[in-house]
Design brief:
2 copies of one chain form a homodimer. By secondary structure, chain A is an alpha/beta fold. Chain A folds into 2 domains: 50 residues, Hypothetical PUA domain-like, domain 1 (Ribosomal Protein L25, Chain P, Beta Barrel); 161 residues, SPOUT methyltransferase, trefoil knot domain (Alpha/beta knot). Chain A has 7 helices and 10 strands. In chain A, helix 2 crosses helix 3. The longest helix of chain A is centred in the C-terminal third of the chain and has 15 residues. The radius of gyration of chain A is 20 Å and the shape is elongated. Chains A, B: Belongs to the RNA methyltransferase RsmE family. Chains A, B: GO terms for molecular function: rRNA (uridine-N3-)-methyltransferase activity.
């Protein structure tokens, strides 16, 4: 297994591993493997796979859509999504999103680190920032969408929509609104989307990263691999 | 309404409010009020209450017990507990807890700030750090305990215990284990406690703060004020 220059730098330059050292590796497709350093160089090297220690698994076919917030809290959303088990992360700019940019490469690297930290063998793809209106205009027929409407907080119908109407597994997405809530235009569009199911997350206003974990918990328990 | 020296310093020294300025205040017992600065001094002052803007509410009679982790993540647990709605926070030292100390005053201040941030009118008490074994030895008869057992992760029985056995409202506590899991002695004690119900939080290992939000979501949806 040849190593990229970046991986060789990390393993031999930063971590100071030498020939014969053993480590755990995963590539997102073949589970986790015990491996041994066969060759260690400044610009490359090779690993010898020994035995698979964790079989490959995939999280459910679930996307998490979220409006970027402040840097540390956006990082947190990415980290939590990896732990909770999502297949893909879609940052979306909404009418009330303050932060108009993301560093996709940084968030992708953060997702990989989060997977390493929590022993996951799968790293969700982090998409580039898209406009929510554009994503909804082109929404796939077969993918259901659970959106969390802050304006419905205070009502006592937690997840009434999702639980009453939605059925079985299949492709899903969970959409967490921006901290300022959705605009009226967005709300109209969402409530009009046949694939959409509204969820409310209790009587208190939650921060975006809290709402992400709470919504993913409800989804995983009801439709995902926690069931 | 007379102000403490600390509050006067914050309002008049830091925030630079003057006589006649209007603000929102809460004391944890009377909801949120619009108020006006009647007198502003260096060491004190008074506020004149105008009208109640939010009635007082209490979260359900739920304690969150957690083993302190690194500072930023412990702060996060406190913040999330306030958003999710708990009545009391109990930091507990377990056999595998690394951090043997907490700054109770700092965590209590953090809980107050979190309440201000999320518009809550209630601030949970943060207790001093206790030994988990001592807390369990003296566990109240009427308070049920949902504990999250990492060792049961990977099994597919998410919350089976809690959902199947437990009934209705009443006093509860949710216990999040330390990142290294419970010791065998603790696990034996917990499984032997008649008030205890085991919950599992999906097939992936969650960090403590993620587990706290996920467990509180399940509890609130099943037994609390999200139902």
């Amino acid at each position: 297994m040849p190593l990229s220059r970046e991986a060789a730098h990390y393993l031999f330059g930063v971590m100071r591993l030498g020939q014969g050292a053993e480590l755990s590796v995963f590539n997102g497709a073949d589970g986790e493997w015990d491996a041994r350093v066969a060759e260690a160089g400044k610009k490359g090297g090779t690993l010898e796979p020994l035995a698979q220690s964790v079989p490959q698994w995939l999280p459910p076919d679930l996307w998490l859509m979220f409006a970027p917030v402040k840097k540390a809290r956006t990082d947190f959303i990415v980290e939590k999504a990896v732990e909770m088990g999502v297949r893909r992360l879609l940052p979306v700019a909404t009418d009330f999103t303050n932060s108009e940019r993301i560093r996709q490469d940084r968030l992708q690297a953060h997702a990989r680190e989060a997977a390493e930290q929590c022993g996951a063998v799968f790293v969700p793809e982090v998409a580039e920032l898209s406009k929510l209106s554009a994503v909804l205009a082109d929404w796939p027929d077969a993918r259901r969408l659970m959106f969390c409407d802050e304006a419905a907080a205070g009502s006592s119908s937690a997840l009434a929509g999702v639980f009453a109407e939605a059925e079985g597994p299949g492709p899903w997405a969970v959409l967490i609104g921006p901290e300022g809530g959705f605009s009226e235009a967005e709300r109209t569009r969402l409530y009009g989307l046949p694939q959409a199911h509204v969820a409310t997350l209790g009587p208190r206003i939650l921060r975006a990263e809290t709402a992400a974990v709470a919504a993913l918990t409800l989804w995983q328990t009801r439709f995902g691999d926690w069931a």
